[in-house]
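Weekly puzzle thread! Below is a chain. First person to post its structure in token form gets bragging rights.
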Amino acid sequence: MSTIDHISIIELGASIGKGTSIGEYCHIGSDVTIGENNTIDSHTVITGNTTIGNGNHISSYTVLGSAPQDLKIASSEVRLIIGDNNTIGLYSLINTGTDHGGKVTTIGNNNQLMEKIHIGHDVQMGDNCLMERDSALGGHVIVGNNVSFMESSAVHQFVKIGDGAYVDKEAALTQDIPPYCIAKGNRAKISGLNIVELRNNFTDIELDAISDAYDTILISNESPKEIAINALKKNQSVILKKLYQFIMESQRGIPFTRKTNVN
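Winning reply:
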């Protein structure tokens, strides 16, 4: 049985799962589907064609499923899909997709989204990500798993961010960040590897191979895509193949400052 405060407005057609509690002064739209055991705090608005999974905590004054901040007209087919066990902080805003961008914004599972975050239209976010307060993702951004965005960081539209990447505090990211990289600055550039995340997922031998691969990219006179093309012809580990494939497919380029080879 769900618990709904009598002061809230639940439009006819909305579906609320068992064990979900909805606080006072919330507004749940007619096309909204909410799963089981969610906690939705007071003054929350969930609208549009929005589907929310199980076990999420959505804090007060959050708006989910609102019309995309896009000049093109959106149809009723655009959607927002949020998975399970996510935390969404106060005053956050997450838009639906757009007709020309895939029609859906997707948030995976076990993500921690803090206060005043914004996730734009057609964003695709994986699992176990962190967005600290005042951070924002522009439209069409693709985010892997275990990615961290520090306080007041911002990501330009159409940017792609690989698994385990780290976007530093107040960074403004306008290009793609490969897996397990740290991006710092305005405009953000790769400043190193996310060693903590690497150690959580790989052996020391694998970590050394990944570090060597990144050093090669940053020191070589060849472009990152040329290096990736040549490296993929060799017998590489799964993680290195993933790295080189990411670089080859990058549409916005990889932001790095080339090191000087002192040898």
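Puzzle host: Confirmed. Bonus trivia for everyone else. The mean pLDDT is 91.
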